Amino acid sequence: MLLYKCPRLYLRALCEGQEAPPAHPMPHVSHSQFNWKLFWQFLRPHLLLLGAAIVLALGAALVNVQIPLLLGQLVEVVAKYTRDHVGSFVSESRNLSTHLLLLYGIQGLLTFGYLVLLSHIGERMAVDMRRALFSSLLRQDIAFFDAKRTGQLVSRLTTDVQEFKSSFKLVISQGLRSCTQVAGCLVSLSLLSPRLTLLLLIATPTLMGVGTLMGSGLRKLSRLCQEQVARATGVADEALGNVRTVRAFAMEQREEERYRAELECCRLKAEELGRGIALFQGLSNIAFNCMVLGTLFVGGSLVAGQQLTGGDLMSFLVASQTVQRSMANLSVLFGQVVRGLSAGTRVFEYMALSPCIPLSGGHSLPREQLHGSVTFQDVSFSYPCRPGFEVLKDFTLMLPPGKIVALVGQSGGGKTTVASLLERFYDPTAGMVTLDGHDLRTLDPSWLRGQVIGFISQEPVLFGTTIMENIRFGKLEASDEEVYAAAREANAHEFICSFPDGYDTIVGERGTTLSGGQKQRLAIARALIKQPTVLILDEATSALDSESEQVVQEALNRASAGRTVLVIAHRLSTVRAAHCIVVMANGRVCEAGTHEKLLRKGGLYAELIRRQALDAPLSSAPPPETLRDPQDRWPRT
Ligand SMILES: Nc1ncnc2c1ncn2[C@@H]1O[C@H](COP(=O)(O)OP(=O)(O)OP(=O)(O)O)[C@@H](O)[C@H]1O
């Protein structure tokens, strides 16, 4: 297991002759506890400001603790004046009133200060967390995304981080303040009347214990609730992202119903959580009111017994109110903290995941020594999310340098899977894929994908930016001239120049403002700009009409020259000129050879050709001379 997580250990295991570990288990997402270690990493840079905020919050709370005592003294002055009618009430009370006004002012300033600081810290932390989570998600294995919905992941980046940030700010502002006030007031109260304070001290821990028990249940509910919200977001995201397909099948109603059903589940779960929180708050209110009533009752009897003055009782009452308000705040805060901790757990959960296939690491080969010879040696493979289902079984294939090899065969036979293994989106369960004799697992994946392999799929995905930036996606440091050259090579320059904005044309989300053929040619330019040694064409022309296909095919032919090319095709007419055609069935190679050789053999390929009724219109140019003699270089079947 450890070997998976660390490619270096894996390599050492190979060197020491240990058996290669079975391929990538599904990255494990544990429903773990809140990750305090990660939280600390985000908090650490802000410790100084946080310390300042805490000091200000504590200051505000301590100022607040003094207010009941001064109010009690003011009441004493009122009582004295009412009783004795001696002197001026205004002059007697001036000092106390000024003192109180000053405290109110200081409290306001301190509150302003710590709230500004907390807002600053909260926003910075949220940005850091989103960046770290996004970066971690981008690094996860492709297998991770097979098992996840985009909506769920996006929700972690948005809602969960937001929820966590709000809770964090509330805990420091309200929570810290309420706790300090409760503590400060309890000290004041114990000075005024130890007996009354004892009453409060007995009741408080009992209530806290009950609260903790209820809290763990609420936390579970909150987690379920947020997961359901993420599911609903996923449904909306999918429907909106595929709105053309939804419209084409007139499935708006169905999508609305799916979303409504998910929302209904959200509502039920949220209401259950709401009821739980309401019950918790209701019970705590009753308990705290009873506490105040009890305090008044016992305090009143102490005043009657002249063990307490009227002013002291007033101070006691105001301080008890502060304690009560703070406790109520804490109970409201509790729900938020429960939600915040769940949200934080979910955010840190994905952040702590380490991919089985790292983005980089291992060695790269100098370009001048790179030949582009690829082999699949006895490769077996199951997708991690379907472990019992072997897609490739002892699959062996050789792509000689500079040659074109076509993979054909039944749908679902594993052709795209072969391409995915070559790109190292997954690692084989058994056997190995090599480039120039090097196991792909020993090579740097970022070098492999960024510089060696170019991939062009059936449905090219473009980004909603300019044509220039889309082509440059293949090589960020490419000059304008390199972009133009790649576009020319891909037969795209002409149509790009015909647009009023030329290379600065915005292509719309996923390239919706372009035709299929235009998108495909941009994808070819994007793949060619990095001058890949190995090119994978996964049914690159199958979605195009015959006119576009011709232009795109021409570009592909040009792009294929001198490169090792793996062509995956359904339409057999497009691969007749390949140096070798490999027929796949049930995850195995069952035939291989040139078009003519396979036709003569009269096996599966000939049968496929017959089915596609391509015997007659075989009109494209005959394969180059070099193709006529495949000899025994081709894969064993
Ligand atoms: N991400 C995935 N997770 C699990 N199973 C998958 C995944 N992708 C493909 N498969 C399964 O692997 C098998 C081979 O799929 P693959 O896409 O490689 O076939 P293919 O030959 O390219 O098919 P087609 O010609 O229809 O594109 C299929 O049974 C498919 O259901």
TrEMBL record:
What GO biological process terms are annotated to this protein in UniProt?
oligopeptide export from mitochondrion; potassium ion transport
Q: Does the keyword Ion transport apply?
A: yes
Q: What positions does the domain ABC transmembrane type-1 occupy?
A: 52-339
Q: Which residues are listed as membrane-spanning?
A: 47-67, 101-121, 196-218
Q: List the InterPro entries.
A: AAA+_ATPase (IPR003593), ABC1_TM_dom (IPR011527), ABC1_TM_sf (IPR036640), ABC_transporter-like_ATP-bd (IPR003439), ABC_transporter-like_CS (IPR017871), P-loop_NTPase (IPR027417), Type_1_exporter (IPR039421)
Tell me the domain of life. Eukaryota
Q: Subcellular localization, per the record?
A: Mitochondrion inner membrane
Q: Where is the composition biased (Basic and acidic residues)?
A: 626-637
SMART domains per the record? AAA (SM00382)
Keywords annotated in UniProt? ATP-binding, Ion transport, Membrane, Mitochondrion, Mitochondrion inner membrane, Nucleotide-binding, Potassium, Potassium transport, Transit peptide, Transmembrane, Transmembrane helix, Transport
Q: Does the keyword Transit peptide apply?
A: yes
Q: Listed GO molecular functions?
A: ABC-type oligopeptide transporter activity; ATP binding; ATP hydrolysis activity
ABC transporter domain: residues covered: 374-611
Where do the record's region annotations for Disordered lie?
617-637
Record membrane topology? Multi-pass membrane protein
Family according to the record: Belongs to the ABC transporter superfamily. ABCB family. Multidrug resistance exporter (TC 3.A.1.201) subfamily.
Q: Name the chain's protein.
A: Mitochondrial potassium channel ATP-binding subunit
